[in-house]
Amino acid sequence: MWIKALDMVLDRIVVQGADLSTVVALSGSAQQHGSLYWSRSGIETLRNLDADKFLHTQLDDSAFTMHRTPIWMDCTTAKQCEEMETAVGGREKMVEITGSRCYERFTGPQIRKIFQQRPDCYRNTERISLVSSFLASIFLGDVAPIDCSDGSGMNLLDVRTRNWSDECLAACAPGLSAKLGQPVPADTIIGTVGSFFVQRYNFNPACRIVAFTGDNLSALAGMNVGQDWLALSLGTSDTVMMKLDTPSNLQEGHVLVHPTDNGFMGLLCFRNGSLVRDIFKRSEANDNWENFSELLDSTPRGNFGNLALHFISKEILPPVKGSLRWNKNSSLASVELAKGVLKYSSSQTEIRALVEGQMLTRKAYASEMGFSFGENTKILATGGASANRSILQVVSDVFNAPVYIQKTTEAALCGAAYRARYVLSVARSKEQCDRTPGPGSYYDFIAELLPHSVTRVCDPSKDSEEIYGAMVERYRAMVSFMLENQE
């Protein structure tokens, strides 16, 4: 299906008149945590593609040992996660090595399940690709290496050494190192475009291929988040992305190898995002976002001491389910006071309590992961709710930082193109024997190319830190009560 989609996309690009001979470098972004399993004959076919035929008629079922392969939505590997964590010395050790505890959707546990339940398929697999390196392989005309950034979402890579962890490989499946190949940094030129694309689509034979990576990592590259920037995606679930100098050992977050520098990327996922905001929009604001915004704007910062946590689905961070509403009298002083109230007296109080509670949750865990908030902090908001200025003003106040939005919505796609452009510039500088100065850092290079790519939309109020600094402690008290009183 993916191969046929590539056939269709390239044909449409050519039909629309694109001159692919002008492409000097390409990279790509692909869904994280999916994996594909090459057969020996499939690799042979890949190396000898016929330009007179479509890709999907050549790379057919015989090219792969598995025809229904796991992607990020597969959550059937709890047993394998437990086995792998036990084998390396426990969950904390797994987090220390790979940056994440074992997750059911991660590729390592998926591979282990295939090894256990379909041993013939595993044995006959010559190479294993992630979706990103699979797509790169097609353009390359050979099996492309997995890049370290996408590879750090597998529970197999040591995020500090940027190489496969022997302990994790042994905990996963035998002979795995040879099937994965050597990982490479995300800024690696892995070769030039294959002859199939030169002959069929008129690509320049000198067109260079930069290692492809995963979509979350590519989105970070596309948003061009610098040292003091925090990216906040406000979607169905909310996601916080940040640059980290050192890996944190937060068990429910992800530390990945940064796609554009030598540091790390922190990734936090919160399940109860826009879906919960939408529930309150329907129940409290006549199912209208303008009404929702008016109600939010009509209440003061701090909401008179009213603060609510709503985890309709079991949350990832913190790992709780349920709702808790506190008013100004609520506290941990007694069980009755800690139980809070069942409902607030007005819709505007309900809505502000919800949004402030959500944003305090995001800030608290970003701090715990190691992001250092200061006077230079900037927030880049993306996702559907980033169109709502009232919500963004709460973000700005809670985080005590200006909020920016981007003109483009295709951050992952742009990230692939930006990376290709930057890595090509670095390569050309080296080839000229350093007669010309290098392009500098990725962040500065892209910021100079796109000086007006972000727009500042909100600034924090002067009393933000005074109000929300104290509310963080109330938030933590509420979470501790919910954790202690789970059913």
TrEMBL record:
One of its GO terms (cellular component) is cytosol. One of its GO terms (biological process) is D-xylose metabolic process. The keyword Kinase applies. The keyword Plastid does not apply. It comes from the Eukaryota. Residues 230-421 form the Carbohydrate kinase FGGY C-terminal domain. It catalyses: D-xylulose + ATP = D-xylulose 5-phosphate + ADP + H(+). It holds the Pfam family FGGY_N. Transmembrane segments: none annotated. Residues 65-222 form the Carbohydrate kinase FGGY N-terminal domain. Keywords: ATP-binding, Carbohydrate metabolism, Kinase, Nucleotide-binding, Transferase, Xylose metabolism. Signal peptide: none annotated. Gene3D superfamilies: 3.30.420.40. GO terms for molecular function: ATP binding; D-xylulokinase activity. Its EC number is 2.7.1.17. Belongs to the FGGY kinase family. Phosphorylates D-xylulose to produce D-xylulose 5-phosphate, a molecule that may play an important role in the regulation of glucose metabolism and lipogenesis. PANTHER family: SUGAR KINASE, XYLULOSE KINASE. This is Xylulose kinase. It comes from Anopheles sinensis (Mosquito).
